[in-house]
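Chapter review: from sequence to fold.
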Amino acid sequence: MNSEQPRPGGRQEAHAAANDAISAPQSGSTGSASSSEEAQQTLQSLRDELDGLDRTLLETLRQRLDCCCRIGRHKRDHAIPMMQPHRIGVVQERAAAFAAEHGMSPIFLRALYELIITETCRLEDEIIGVPAKPA
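The token string follows.
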């Protein structure tokens, strides 16, 4: 992310304050141990926040793949072709627009979505290859 652009969720100020706390020069005064401890607490707090975001990201990814499996079953049950190239383009364009709006690398988001789409296609191949269960 470009450090000059706002961070998603309006966390730019908190991030800057945390960076200032961690990177503030340490003096030889008696407050040095306290500053070091405060810096470690801030770092741990930021890592805890990151861990929570990772849990949310992974759960959202699980939900997305689950939705893709439901789509795959629907395609199978209604004889809809698995490959929908126009849909892939829509998803990739949406990711590129998101990157542009939020100061993120479009190359990164394109690579991320390539991985997600590859896994989605693998799952749909497995589902479509299995005969539909009689209703």
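Two observations follow directly from the output. Helices lie at 12-23, 31-77, 85-102, 106-128. The mean pLDDT is 82.
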